[in-house]
Structures are given as structure tokens and as C-alpha cells.
Amino acid sequence: MKIIGIIPARYASTRFPGKPLIDIAGKSMIQRVFEQAKKSTCLAEVIVATDDARIEQHVKAFGGNVIMTAETHQSGTDRCFEAIQKYNDNADVVINIQGDEPFIQPQQIDLLAACFNSNDVQLATLIKKVSNNEELFNVNTPKVIIDKNGNAIYFSRQTIPSIREKQTSDWLLNHTFYKHIGIYGYTIKALSEITVLQPSALERAEGLEQLRWIENGYKIKVNVTDFESVAIDVPDDLKKLTKFL
């Protein structure tokens, strides 16, 4: 099985323009993500998919592989599909690696790739146990509930499930909650199919594209990771990187 890692990287972020090129202790964010991904034992290749010439030139300068894609893509999933089409290779699986997580662990990528050891898996992602109430009730931290077969049932920005007859301060004592780690894997066939789906009602309500797939009948396999994920969405998030540096 041939697995390709693709890192979507836009320059024109509304909350943090130029984010892929910001300097983090001597290296750009996109270079750090690329180098971490290259440490994965399961990826045949790692490619940056961008819509900006500045990012393209920068990736080439540090020796990375890069493919230019359209500016019109609404999601990283769409950008991944264009990139793998242009790559024109006989890949079986694409792993979409977030370009704003400079310290993603290669073990996370390998864990996600392991989902595809089963021929039944079309889509996969990672989840992590919620460890504190700040995460549990933060609407910027999507939560997920899963079935007994390890497939996602639903994702929400709200805290799910709700625990009846318990104070919210005690919810973590009475149930295991999971948050979503935003890394995805797709078979090439599934990727080609989900990119032509129209936005769904649940997706529009929650602002989470994976709900479109569930609403259209696709199953999303999950694996549980113990590694923390730190995404940089706005400039203030850079403060969170201190412990990693």
C-alpha cells in the first residue's frame, strides 16, 4: 500500500495571513510540519500543496516537494485531491496533514495510516481523550462520539454527550470524552467521491466538513492518540509553543 502525505498550505488566512511562513525558532511553520511528516515510517512521499508562489519558493528552498493548486478551494480536502491528481502516481491513500501544527508527531501519522490496514476503511482520523474542563467546554475544540466498532458517530463544537443529573464540573468523572485531532486519511476512491459532495445541513450548522461525509453515509474510522496536538490559528497561539520548543 502506497501512502502519500499532503500538507495543504494557504497564504491568505483571514485570522493569520502568511501563517505558513512565520518563523518559529529559526524555521518556518511549514518547514517544521514538513520535517516532522518526513519522519513518519509509512509515508512514501510528503508534498506541500499551496496556492501561493511565496510558499512554493520557500518549500523549494529548503528542499521540499511542492505542488501549486487553485486559489478557489474551500477546504484542505479539496486541495489534497487536486494535488494528488497532479502528482499522477499510483497512490492508494492520502493523509491530509495540517499545515499549522509544527510539532505534529510522526507516530500520529503512522497511527492514522494503520487504520487502512483494513480494506473496509475509506476515511480515518484521530481522537484524543479530553483531560480537563477547559477543553471539554471550549467550542473551538471539536468533540467526537464513537461507536463500538471505532467509527465516528458525530462531531460537534458543543460538549457531547450531555450527562444527565450531573453537574458539568463532574462530567469528566462520569464519562470518557474525546476531542478531534484534525488529521485525515482517505483512500483515493473516497477522496474523489467526497470532494464532489455538496455542503450538508449539519456541516453548515457546526462548521465541520467531516459531517458532510457522515451525512452522506460514509464511515470515519478513528484511532486514539496520546499525543497532544497544538494548532496555530491566530498569532496569540504562538505562546502555546513554548513548552515544545
Description:
The protein is an alpha/beta fold. The chain has a single domain, classed as Spore Coat Polysaccharide Biosynthesis Protein SpsA, Chain A (Alpha-Beta Complex). The chain is built from nine helices and eleven strands. Strand 2 (23-24) and strand 3 form a beta hairpin.
User: CATH superfamily membership, which one?
Assistant: Spore Coat Polysaccharide Biosynthesis Protein SpsA, Chain A
Order of helices and strands: EEEHEHEHEHEHEEHEHHHE
Q: The CATH topology, please?
A: Spore Coat Polysaccharide Biosynthesis Protein SpsA, Chain A
For the record, the CATH class is: Alpha Beta
User: What is the general shape?
Assistant: globular
Count of individual domains: 1
Mean pLDDT: 92
Total number of helices? 9
Count of beta strands: 11
Approximate strand percentage: 15-25%
Broad structural category: alpha/beta
CATH architecture: Alpha-Beta Complex
Roughly what percent helix?
A: 25-40%
Distance between the termini: 34 Å
- Largest beta-sheet details: 9 strands, mixed
Low-confidence stretches: none
Question: Rg from C-alpha positions?
Answer: 18 Å
Keywords, separated by commas or semicolons:
nine-stranded mixed beta sheet, alpha/beta, 245 residues, Spore Coat Polysaccharide Biosynthesis Protein SpsA, Chain A, 9 helices
